[in-house]
Amino acid sequence: MLTAAQVKNAKADGKRKKLSDGRGLLLVVDPAGGKWWRYRYKIKGKERLMSLGTFPTMSLSQARVARDQAAITRAAGVDPMAAGEASTGDTLEQLAKDWFDAKSTNWTMQNATRVWSRVSNNVLPLLGARDPDAIEPRDVLEVLRPIEARGAIETAHRVRGYISAMYRFGIASQRVTRDPAADVRDALKTKPTTVNFAAVTDPDTLAKMLRDIHEYGGRWWAVPAAVKLTPYLLVRPGALRRMEWTDIDLDRAEWQTKSLKGQKLETIVPLPRQAIEIISEAESWSGGGRYVFPGPRTTTRPISENAILQALRGMGWGKDDVTAHGFRATARTLLDEVLQWRVDWIESQLGHNVKDPNGRAYNRTKFLDERRAMMQAWADYLDALRITGRSVDPSPHRQAAVLQHQASE
Hints:
With 409 residues, this protein is of the alpha+beta class. The protein contains 16 helices and seven strands. It has helices at 4-9, 60-75, 80-83, 92-103, 109-127, 137-149, 153-172, 203-215, 222-233, 237-241, 273-283, 307-314, 326-337, 343-349, 368-388, 395-408, and strands at 17-22, 25-29, 35-43, 46-54, 248-249, 254-258, 265-270. It has a four-stranded antiparallel β-sheet with strand order 1-2-3-4, with helices on one face. The chain has a three-stranded antiparallel β-sheet with strand order 5-6-7. A hairpin with a 4-residue loop joins strand 5 (248-249) and strand 6 (254-258). Helix 8 (203-215) crosses helix 15 (368-388) and helix 9 crosses helix 12. It is elongated.
């Protein structure tokens, strides 16, 4: 049996640990510091793991009482989890708070406020006091239908995503056994489509595409180099193929892009180290001409308008999968929804017209330091996707960029 001191001082030491108090009562200790009470039992030949509550909200003695109450219910032939005992102590509200506290540390204040407002206003009033493992898909729909009814289709999908994220967080720490929000995705109205160019926004699919791009050879050296650079920089394909050496400052790690007519300065693009490596390598191949990516016949002209698109098609990616312009939509979506960067910084880097609270357009140097950190985080995230070949936790890449930026100030 455990003692109160053992419970208080228990640590996971880098790996989740389970401590037994006997008769099915377990203390699950997470490396992040969380501690959860669980009751392990069998009913009708099936093993179950029931959430009882969290420590220190629920003490050792209280957990034993909850365990004993659940055992009495089981002895009567009733599944304690199905019975939905109110005495379990763990509620969806507590799960939501623990999820938010763990994940919001790498979010902007603006995004964190928006997320918690949607959760507290839409989810918690209906489901907050309930045992999270007793909530069914129909209960989740009862939360989402009123949001749909007021025409906020995108918000309904986002709230469903928040609930699903809470449950994935709970499953990882063995607080819940399944995600009821996953079963209602197709029951919601379709989100309005706003992307005009085919783009990949699923991290797993993007990982495969990045691997294909990295391994692509091509007939003319400038095309593979330009294709490799495309996902990193968030620029229009026309601007990238016409990149000129006079507009690049490798010492400052910046590229000053021009408008399509080649005269007006459009925006400053901070160059992550991955982009600098590609551009530096191109310098030894470009023949001292005007363009970073010259065409195969003459150094006085850049690669063709369709060179990057044709390369993607040659890798097997069809018109419904991606376009060269679609990488901008990919970055716009993932930087916002996955890496949690500020939308105005993203829009500014995309070269869109971003206005301040007084309606005045920001100039091209606005948010430059913030965008520099964001671009490096984006490049590191893409590399991690490519190397692992699957979805990765974006938090370290964002946090590393922020810390690097702060250290340089």
